[in-house]
Amino acid sequence: MDARKERILQAVVADYTETMIPVGSQTLAARYLSEISPATIRNELADLVLDGFLLQPHTSAGRIPSDRGYRYFVDFLLSAETVEPQVRRSVRHAFESAPPAAEAILEVAAGVMSRLSENLAVLTGPAAAGSRLKHVALVGLRPGQALLVVAVADNLVRQRLISVPEEADQDRLTAIASWINHQASGRTADELGLVPATEDEPTAARAILAEVAGALRTLDLPGTVVVHDGVRNLVSQPEFGDPHQLHAVLTVLETQRMVAELLALVQPQDGVQAVIGSENAVEELHGCSFLVTTYRVGDRMRGTIGVVGPTRLRYGRVVARMELVSRLTGEMLDRYVV
Amino acid sequence: MDARKERILQAVVADYTETMIPVGSQTLAARYLSEISPATIRNELADLVLDGFLLQPHTSAGRIPSDRGYRYFVDFLLSAETVEPQVRRSVRHAFESAPPAAEAILEVAAGVMSRLSENLAVLTGPAAAGSRLKHVALVGLRPGQALLVVAVADNLVRQRLISVPEEADQDRLTAIASWINHQASGRTADELGLVPATEDEPTAARAILAEVAGALRTLDLPGTVVVHDGVRNLVSQPEFGDPHQLHAVLTVLETQRMVAELLALVQPQDGVQAVIGSENAVEELHGCSFLVTTYRVGDRMRGTIGVVGPTRLRYGRVVARMELVSRLTGEMLDRYVV
DNA sequence: CTTAGCACTCACCGGTCACGAGTGCTAAGC
DNA sequence: GCTTAGCACTCGTGACCGGTGAGTGCTAAG
User: Fold this and answer.
1) Distance from first CA to last CA of chain B, Å, rounded?
2) Burial B86-104, CB ≥16 within 10 A → b, else e
3) What is the mean pLDDT of residues A107-135?
């Protein structure tokens, strides 16, 4: 790949992602590479097809980027775009006007991300591996049944229904919770087993402590919270004009577990990662690309933001916008409990 | 509308909902009304068109039901279908294998309902107007901020972030919660203002009591929990073959607030109610029908189950299946906290 | 190595036309 | 007077077809 081939590949990607028309040598010469003649470009295009970076729909058609071409573009040619000020403002405004609750912020983030990417946005709620126990509350609901509320560091809260002895009334439950709070605060799930036994410990307290440990361990279960928005954008994409293909894609995407697992694959390192076309393990999604990044709340809590669209994505623009949404989502969630 | 016209309308609806082909007089005679001749049926069809129950796409085409025709069918001709045993079994199995949590059950219900209706299913989570306070817990998260957990009758729980005095530690918060529990248990939101002042009442307790009242009042905020599944089914409907129309419909449906408000319009009386085609206030949804019903958990908690599809719905079948899902959803949710 | 010239390919578009399902009308039958 | 057979007519559907033009690959000259 010499510099001129890279320029041509870049031009093909730029033009095709915008127009969705296979790009010909004349178009390239006129619009992007005025100092090279169409004939030369034709020779280079032929080479790029041979190398697998471009595809030719039929003999007398222009070229479109292949999955490999997009991959090369994303890895080596993607220039950092900046988000336009007015877009930045509108995003900030959308977040500011969100109702003051974590779920609402996730919904707003999904809505904003789908609007900015003009595609489908998927978000997973914050998770907290290895978080430290902060406080436990027990609320009796009916005889033999209580609600366990577990709060951990970084504003994360989970509730769970548990069984308790029939005769335990609210005062008893409060006492048990109080004992657990004094003994186990600040510990992680793994350390809860190390809590020493004491004389005044109620018989039920140990069992409930085990439930607390379980709750801490399962805070991160994938698929706990998945918000998505923007299916309407997908159906507008000409790539999904065929109802059968659209149906196949949506069937996969609506099975939230699968998307959640895919998002979970992404390492929580910084930056946006891409899964392009046939790189995806799921056959039905070979015409789609995923862009995935993470957001941080406080120190350890993390969630993922994904954008799903046709391989013909405006990678540069969407990546820049995802980074913006990721940062704001983290900042906003920092204010609320999830 | 004499009996024969009704039979013909019923036959047209039955055939068209199944085949999506405008129904002709010969088809009707051969398949549903063998004792009447096609010519007679033609005369009746012409009358039904004049009365607005049927439409004729073009001069030499068969007839399709109009919105008014569907309405008449739903109101007067809908026969109670029974759910096939194997379907009933599969539904029960799906519910039984749901993870033991309220959200998971709602998701399962949405998945089952969309599968059974072969359309889009929308569910709202349980709400509880006028519920009585059962228990309050306060969990300090950081200085000046605490988590308020409110449990009411019928297994309903809500949490909310509130401001508290900077110097209030967990012991103080627990004391406040304890005071509220002793004073205000069993009261509704409206009755909380009547709680008498006492000597040992902390200054912060009154403010938090007001937050509790607010939480009780907003338990029912529409759109709190909306689960949907089955967009994939909509795109397979030939009615939505046009991407523009599909986009318009999805845009409306994805704005959850609108759907939630629509579901909220439905009175919580028993039975399935229908909004057919242009009866819908939203212009974009004039090609769609809504079927809505409610489910009950315990005594007062209620949520709604909706099915959205093209006006060409298999009303009889879907209604029967909605009643099944509604009953099971209520029974399952009765076991868990929401 | 680059570029002008040129013959060739092939998807796309619009027009034509045969086909057939279904109708409305008329007149005969019960 | 309602029902029905016969029949001409309508009109959407789909197949066929040839012109058009964008774009190519190849060749030879610069």
Assistant:
1) 48
2) ebeeebeebbeebeebbbe
3) 88
Q: CA of A243 and C1' of D16: distance in angstroms?
A: 27
Residue A310: helix, strand or coil by DSSP? Answer: strand
- Listed as ranges, the nucleotides of chain D within 7 A of a protein C-beta are 3-6, 9-12, 21-27
Residue with tokens 């005889």, as numbered in its chain: A143
Structure tokens given for B325:
């899902």
What are φ and ψ of residue A199, in 5° steps? -70, -45
The tokens describing B218, both together, are: 């907003």
CA A10 – CA A220 distance, rounded (Å): 40
Query: Shortest CB distance from B250 goes to which of A161, A181, A232?
Result: A232
DSSP letter for A170, please. H
Mean pLDDT of A308-325: 96
Handedness of CA A19, A25, A27, A31 (dihedral sign): positive
List of residues 6+ apart from A41 with CB closer than 8 A: A8, A25, A28, A29, A33
Task: Tell me A255's DSSP state.
Answer: S
Give the per-residue pLDDT at A64: 96
- Residue A236 touches partner B, C-beta closer than 8 Å: yes
- State the residue for tokens 């599909």: B246
Q: Which DSSP symbol is given to A76?
A: I
Answer whether A214 touches B (CB < 8 Å): no
Q: In this predicted structure, which of A169-178, A196-205, B6-15 has the lowest mean pLDDT?
A: A196-205
pLDDT tens digits along A178-198: 888 888 888 888 888 778 888
Each residue's pLDDT tens digit, B294-327: 998 877 667 889 999 999 999 999 999 999 999 9
- CA of A60 vs C1' of D18, distance in Å? 19
Q: Which residue of A lies nearest to B150 if distances are taken between CA atoms? A: A139
Q: Which long-range contacts (CB under 8 A, 24 or more apart) does B84-91 make?
A: B87/B116, B87/B321, B88/B324, B91/B116, B91/B321, B91/B324, B91/B325, B91/B328
Sign of the alpha-carbon dihedral angle for B279, B282, B284, B288: negative
Q: Residue B161: pLDDT band by 50, 70, 90 thresholds?
A: confident
Alpha carbons within 13 A on the beta-carbon side of B77: 22
pTM, to two decimals: 0.88
